[in-house]
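Hi C.,

You asked whether I'd gotten around to modeling the 101-residue construct. I have! Everything is below, sequence then structure, no commentary in between.
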Amino acid sequence: MWDWDVVRDRIYTGPEAEDLLGLPRGSLEGPARDWLEILHPGDRDRFRTTLDTAVELRRGRIHQDFRLRCEDGHYRYFHLRARPVLAATARSCAASGRCSK
């Protein structure tokens, strides 16, 4: 589970992804650009384009597989299901259909 506050450019994650990757708690939280460093190089452009398009269009659904680097250097596959949630402030895009406003 994750939420992306687009206006503030902050990603908030649940502990599950960090546990799977062997990362300390809170290490996946922060600006979206920080995720580019742990994304597999072959997935970066597609991931960035997908998120940029969702923000620009302010609608649609995202279904995408991508790989994140574990603490030991190996990659794990993740599947992202997300949709933009536009409150009065248009502030978040969240995974799994559960969103904060």
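If it helps when you're writing up: DSSP finds three helices and five strands in the chain.

Thanks,
B.
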